[in-house]
Amino acid sequence: MHPRLLFWIPAGLRLSLVLAGAAAAWYFFGLVPGLVAAIAGLLIFVVVQLHYLYRLSIWLNDPNSAKVPDGWGAWTEVFARLYRMRRGDEKNQAELTEWLARFRQAMSLLPDGVVIMDDVLFLEWCNPAAERHLGLRLERDKGMRVTNLVRSPEFMDYIILGRYEQPLTMSLRERKLVVQIIPFENRRQILVTHDATEAERIEMMRRDFIANASHELRTPLTVINGFLEIATTQPDLDPKTRMAHLKLMCEQGQRMQNLVEDMLTLTRLESVDYPLRPERVALRVLLEQIEQEAIALSAGRHTISLRAAGPDIKGGTEELRSAFGNLVSNAVRYTPAGGSIAIEWQACDAGAQFVVRDTGIGIRPEHIARLTERFYRVDKSRSRETQGTGLGLAIVKHVLLRHDAALAITSEPDKGSTFTVTFPRKAIYVE
């Protein structure tokens, strides 16, 4: 029998063949040759088994499906099973690695912070949002106690009390955070952080808007109700007084109407239900109309000039009419008699510019940054005289945002102001 064929025979049968060969040697050649043949066969058998056991032990030190050794006989099945098991393990490990990578990527994109801690609050992992919210760095702080990293008395009290069913709102790093600890498993806890700064700012703006709108509406309503009460209790008023009252009531009614229209305009500009529908805006025609309105508002008290040499742009005609009209009418209202207002439309390196220059009362530097806030007024008494609603520049701001334009304001008290609107090159209309 060929030696290699011997290894494809099962181990039990192989041992029987060795013994049968030794018996045949003893029968034909005597006892000693038979014993030698038996011992030699057993040694070969043992050496082969030890050889494969050694190869198996080496592979177990570095189990890899590509390095599974080949075998003969029963070892063929053993190594084949090991190969299939290792391939299955490698496939499962690859899937787990992929899912872990997806999980970490998803966690890194979350706007909320996620911190994984052990049962004694030692940091195990956190996402970038948690690093921003709490001032952590995973590479630096991993394995450290979170209570030593987040220095906040409110947070410490929250940990000590252990009432994790309710979230904690606290101020940290100039932000308003909502944090909550969620226990999971036996030795793990999750700390979730949510940045509520912007939501609180919006809520404050909403409250201020309601308060300011109520205040602005209360004055004209008080005037109208007061005159109506006089008219009902004193039916014999002389016609001249009655006409004066009616005139004031009409003025206050118009003021309320303007305020409501401006609030509706702001709501429309901020709503996603009213997207901008760009069209060709003939700026020269539009600005000539605005110039005529400014001349009518001025009633001959100012010198008003227009120079429109710039290109047409893409945008909303009525929205730009409202924005440019607000800037020009403000210049007329806040420029004393005898002053001048210059309106310009011109091309520039960035794209195109709309400029309004006046020789009015000017604005102090500390007020300029807040001019586009709702209901913000530099001089409330003068605003009442000019019949302003306090929403004009807020409307201008939102119109320009929708057109990707920027507003710049320069002013000097008692010398005048310049309002410059810059449109990008992509806004220029090209036939």
Task: Characterise the protein shown here.
This protein is of the alpha+beta class. The protein folds into four domains: 3-86, no CATH class; 110-195, Beta-Lactamase (2-Layer Sandwich); 199-270, Signal transduction histidine kinase, dimerisation/phosphotransfer (DHp) domain (Helix Hairpins), CATH 1.10.287; 279-427, Histidine kinase-like ATPase, C-terminal domain (Heat Shock Protein 90), CATH 3.30.565.10. The protein contains 15 helices and twelve strands. The strands form three sheets. The protein has a five-stranded antiparallel sheet with strand order 2-1-5-4-3, sandwiched between helices. Helix 2 (11-29) packs antiparallel against helix 3 (31-61), helix 9 packs antiparallel against helix 10 and helix 11 (283-298) packs parallel to helix 12 (317-333). The longest helix is centred in the middle third of the chain and has 37 residues, at 197-233. The model is unreliable at 1-9 (pLDDT under 50).
According to CATH, the homologous superfamily of the largest domain is: Histidine kinase-like ATPase, C-terminal domain
Low-confidence blocks of residues: 1-9
Q: What is the residue-averaged pLDDT? A: 83
Tally the structural domains. Answer: 4
Question: What is the rounded Rg?
Answer: 43 Å
Strands in their spatial order, largest beta sheet: 2-1-5-4-3
The CATH class label of the largest domain is: Alpha Beta
Secondary-structure element sequence? HHHHEEHHHHEEEHHEHEEHEEHHHEE
Which range does the strand content fall in?
15-25%
Q: What is the end-to-end distance? A: 95 Å
